[in-house]
Amino acid sequence: MCGATEGGLPLDGINTKIEAIIQGQVTKDGSPVGVAYVRLLDKSGEFTAEVPVSATGHFRFFAGDGEWTLRTLAPGADTVDRKVIAAVGSIAEVEIAL
Amino acid sequence: MAREDVLVTTQWVEENLDNPQVVLIEVDEDTSAYDRSHIRGAIKLDWTTDLQDQVRRDFVNKAQFEALLSDKGVANDSTVVLYGGNNNWFAAYAYWYFKLYGHQDVKLLDGGRKKWELDARELTDEPVKLESTTYTASEQDLSIRAFRDDVVAAIGVQNLVDVRSPDEFAGRLLAPAHLPQEQAQRAGHVPTAVSVPWSKAANDDGTFRSNDELKAIYTEAGFDFSKDTIAYCRIGERSSHTWFALQELLGEPNVKNYDGSWTEYGSLVGVPIALGDEPGEA
């Protein structure tokens, strides 16, 4: 897990200087959620990407500079929207509690 | 073609898990997803190894496709039901691929693996091996496949539909935002292409929107239903999703998928490229 944030997805082989990374973890009642989908919407609300979370609830996007929305869908939970600001050369960490 | 001829629901799949006529196939961008878990009885197709020639950039040929399906246990009269992650991007790609080689009875699981998971339906990691068959494919149906010269000739003449995200269309991103952005090719879009992101055709749960909604979306985007159409994206999988919506759901004739898509077009020497949010001039 060289280069990873604690407990998160590895950043091996990724040039973080040129990427605007948005990543985080989906939890419910304090525990990681292993089945959930996180969608990345652009500033106009348009779909840009979607990933299933890892077994530990983690997700990551390579976005661009600006404001984005993370929309999380999971079985038996309401949809959760979270705004996030991304910037090239930085990692925006987002914790999503269902 | 009726919607139920080409789309089945998660409930239909659950009710047909033990139907020997039905061959359920998972196709994912993440080719390891199936190995972790899959719908009971489903077999796997790996788009990187099973569906791509391993030397040149092209599909497997007719003989290779026949050998593949024979080995996997798909018969010519099987009802093939495809599903996968990423809102069925690669399942739609495989659907188009099966049509390219003439398989008659092929359907998509509406919503794909995501809908199945959001329904909290059962997945298993049990291996599946079907009895082999003798599969016979048709020659490629090139009425549904576009090549680079078709795309260049279509500028300002046919509907060109760019189904990537708005930022990829405009040239602000080179790949979907869940993938690293380092790429060799130029950013932008084919001049005169309208931007209709594939995602507009799908609901949040991955199911396709109704035909009335689809028609409204393409009409609003400036799509001319009287013209032939070429859809493209980055590598041809998201545009398979749009090809499915236009040809299989809306019944539009003469819709082609350009599988070379932006990774080919954006690397060509001397072809026109438009930047920004507008289609641009021919």
- SSE-based structural type of chain A: mainly beta
Find the biggest chain interface: A-B, 28 and 27 residues
Largest sheet of chain A: 4 strands, mixed
Main β sheet profile of chain B: 5 strands, parallel
What oligomeric state do these chains adopt?
A: heterodimer
Q: Which bin fits the share of residues in helices of chain A?
A: under 10%
Strand content range of chain A = over 45%
By CATH, the architecture of the largest domain in chain B is named 3-Layer(aba) Sandwich
Protein name (chain A): DUF1416 domain-containing protein
Pfam family, one (chain A): DUF1416
Organism (chain A): Nocardioides jejuensis
InterPro entries (chain A): DUF1416 (IPR010814)
Question: What can you see in these coordinates?
Answer:
The complex is a heterodimer of chains A (98) and B (282). With 98 residues, chain A is mainly β. Chain A has a single domain, classed as Immunoglobulins (Immunoglobulin-like), CATH 2.60.40. Chain A is built from no helices and eight strands. In chain A, strands 1, 2, 5 and 8 form a four-stranded mixed β-sheet that branches. In chain A, strands 4-3-6-7 form a four-stranded antiparallel β-sheet, with no helix packed on it. The N terminus of chain A is likely disordered. Chain B has 282 residues and is an alpha/beta fold. Chain B has two domains: 138 residues, Rhodanese-like domain (Oxidized Rhodanese, domain 1); 123 residues, 3-Layer(aba) Sandwich (Oxidized Rhodanese, domain 1). In chain B, 31% of the residues lie in helices and 12% in strands. Chain B is built from eleven helices and ten strands. In chain B, the strands form two sheets. A five-stranded parallel β-sheet of chain B has the order 1-5-4-2-3. In chain B, helix 5 crosses helix 10. Chain B is globular. At the A-B interface, strand 3, strand 4 and strand 5 of A face helix 5 and helix 6 of B.
